[in-house]
Amino acid sequence: MRILISDVVSLPTNGNSGAKQRVDIGVEDGRIAFIAKHMPRDSEQGQHQGPWDRVIVGRGRLVLPGLVNAHTHLGMTLLRGYGDDLPLMVWLQEKMWPIEEQLTAEDVYWSALLGIGEMLKGGVTTCGDMYFHMDAVAEAVAETGIRASLSRGIQDISGSGLKGLGEAVDLCRGWQGAANGRITTALGPHAPYTCSPEFLQKTADWAARLEVPIHIHVAETTAEVREIGEKYGTTPLGMLSANGLLDLPMTAAHCVHMEEADIVLAAQKEVRIVHCPTSNLKLGSGIAPVPKMLAAGLTVGLGTDSAASNNRLDIW
Ligand SMILES: [Zn+2]
Q1: Backbone phi, then psi, for 191, in 5-degree steps?
Q2: 44, 61, 201, 292: most buried, per Cβ within 10 A?
Q3: Nearest CA to 301 among 277, 279, 275?
Q4: CA of residue 306 to ligand 1 center, whole Å
Q5: Which of 98-112, 134-148, 158-172, 182-196 is predicted with the least confidence, judged by mean pLDDT?
Q6: How many domains does the chain have?
Q7: Ligand 1 center to residue 30 CA distance, Å?
Q8: 133 falls within a domain
Q9: How many angstroms separate the alpha carbon of residue 232 from the centre of ligand 1?
């Protein structure tokens, strides 16, 4: 398949906004073959030696690298608008968890397809996704062409920890590197308040053995910070550190309530933060101290969280 995107304005990624120029982009077999100065159709090299299977006229449009939605739950796209105007814990315990028990693998498959369609239309070409029935999500990712890091969300407060961990390990073994490398995997312990220290240690052992990163929710609400403080005498990030998770590559979603010492520790351990502002505001969780994180040298990405706690999967 040869695709030509003709006469589109290219936005350079080196921060040099003055270097914008009109270009033609050739794509062959799913890879960019060239980016060259735009040649009018009637010039000698016009249209860069076709024939092309498809020509996309880019005039008046901007081409830029794909966006990354670093934290989402595609299986929840069908739950958009269910449980509005509630704080996180009520939303989660009284609305989401009961209805999620009803979701089948087929529900999650269609939900993921819908979510991926919305993301691709919004320029997102890569996502970090955590949920259950993840084989169905992986199939949707493989079919659509998006790139994704997938993790089976796991916790052990319901007593189903080891079963979930087994499924999570199977997901990593079954899908790592699939779809021409577009699918990678991670282990996804839900959060410090839904996972016991023993369960987190087991998860960390498996992540090290499988050589996959950790994807987790951290310090999302003041209620979580209070609960972890009372139970363990430390912060959510401190609790994860005590159980070995920060010795692994880790993506930490939210991090709304981070103390100065947490930010220093996160920077030392190169924890990658995912800022999810719309979700944090919708659920009344607060506003993450992003300027302080950036000043400490942390890598901060953006996430929507699920459509159920945002209502959109649009990074813009
Ligand atoms: Zn989330």
Answers
A1: -170, 160
A2: 201
A3: 275
A4: 6
A5: 158-172
A6: 2
A7: 31
A8: yes
A9: 23
User: 280 C-alpha vs ligand 1 centroid, how far in Å?
Assistant: 10
In angstroms, the CA 129 to CA 306 distance is 9
Domain that holds residue 106: 67-309
Q: How many Å lie between the centroid of ligand 1 and the Cα of residue 200?
A: 18
- How far apart CA 3 and CA 212 sit, in angstroms, is 35
Q: What CATH number has the domain bearing residue 193?
A: 3.20.20.140
| Six token digits for residue 263 | 């930010």
Q: What is the pLDDT of residues 236-269, one digit of tens each?
A: 999 999 999 999 999 999 999 999 999 999 999 9
Q: How far apart are CA 181 and CA 175, in angstroms?
A: 9
Largest CA-CA distance found in the chain, in angstroms, rounded: 74
Tokens encoding 164: 């979930």
Six-digit token string for 223? 């209620």
pLDDT, tens only, 61-111: 998 889 999 999 999 999 998 988 888 888 889 999 899 999 999 999 999
Same domain, 37 and 72: no
Judgement on whether residues 196 and 253 belong to the same structural domain of the protein: yes
Give residues with Cβ within 8 angstroms of 300, minimum separation 6.
Answer: 272, 273, 274, 275, 290, 293, 294
Instruction: Find the 44 Cα to ligand 1 centroid distance in Å.
Output: 53
In a domain, 314, yes or no: no
